[in-house]
Amino acid sequence: MPGIGSRRKRHRVGRGSSAFGQGSLRSLRDGIAARAMGLGFGAVGVTSVDPLPEWDHEVRRRVREGVVPQDQRHRHLCNLRADPREIMPEAASVVVLARPYVPFASPFPRGVAGYSAYYRAYPEGRVAAQELAAELERIGIRAVAQPRLPNKALAVRAGLGSYGRNSLIHCPKFGSFVSIHAILTDAPLEPDAPAEICDCGKCDACVRACPTGAIRPGGAVDLARCVRAYMNSGRTVPVELREAYGTSILGCDACQRCCPRNAGAMKRTSVPPEEDHEVFSLAGILGDDPGERKRRLARMAVVLGRNYSRENRILADAAIAAGNTTDPGLLEPLGRALQHPHEPVRAHAAWAIGRIGGRAGVRLLEKARATETSELVVDEIEDALEKARMNA
Question: Whole-angstrom Cα distance, residue 30 to residue 24?
Answer without folding.
Answer: 10
